[in-house]
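Lab channel / #folding
Pinned by the channel admin:
"Please post every new chain as: sequence first, then the structure tokens as a reply. Keep commentary short and put observations after the output so the thread stays searchable."

First post following the new format, from NK:
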Amino acid sequence: MNKAERLLKLLTLLQSRRRAITAASLAEKLNVSERTIYRDIQALELSGVPISGEAGVGYMLQAGSTLAPLMFNESELEALILGVRMVQAWGDSGLAESADQALDKIKAILPDRQHYLHSIAEETLIVPDFEHGNSTQYSQELRQAIKQREKLAIHYQDEKQATSERTIWPLGLVYWGKVWTLVSWCELRDDYRSFRIDRIQKLAGANAHFEASDEISLKNYLSRFKEH
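Reply from TO:
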């Protein structure tokens, strides 16, 4: 994380709080030293950000210095929080961390009434993740391969315990309410195949890329279900 990104995250954390937060807490959240936090606070102050507080006590933005609030109604706020909870429960660790950061940004621009509604929603909208287990294994690697259109070599075990080796073109991830599946073009079958990612035994890059087309794409795959 470069300094500009860190300063933005620090400012967002300060905006999301109504009370002072210590340098130690900020350092833990940003995974840096307290000395770095002190320097970053000074940099924000020199750039004109009105920060109250001092070392050993805590820091907060001065009253009236937050960004203009977004006016979410109760249903909209509940929908946003539920979406974050679903990502945290059913997504991989990378997506969960991004969801946390998104929620911090939302909290940073909520007025006091909305903060109160947010605290209630957090307590009443629960998404259990008891069966998380291996359901998101390889998810981050798969998302990266999908974006970069990188072919993958996988070892897969089906529901009958039969194993196979495939070279696939990863097209997209689909969540079915309990498991994630990878929609792919399988070179072995020369057709679409979907693989439960919790049944992938091994995964590696195939040192090759593919070109998606209108005939081979996630959109084309999903359109087959609409036809029936």
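NK: The longest strand covers residues 163-175.
TO: also worth noting, The two ends are 48 Å apart (CA to CA).
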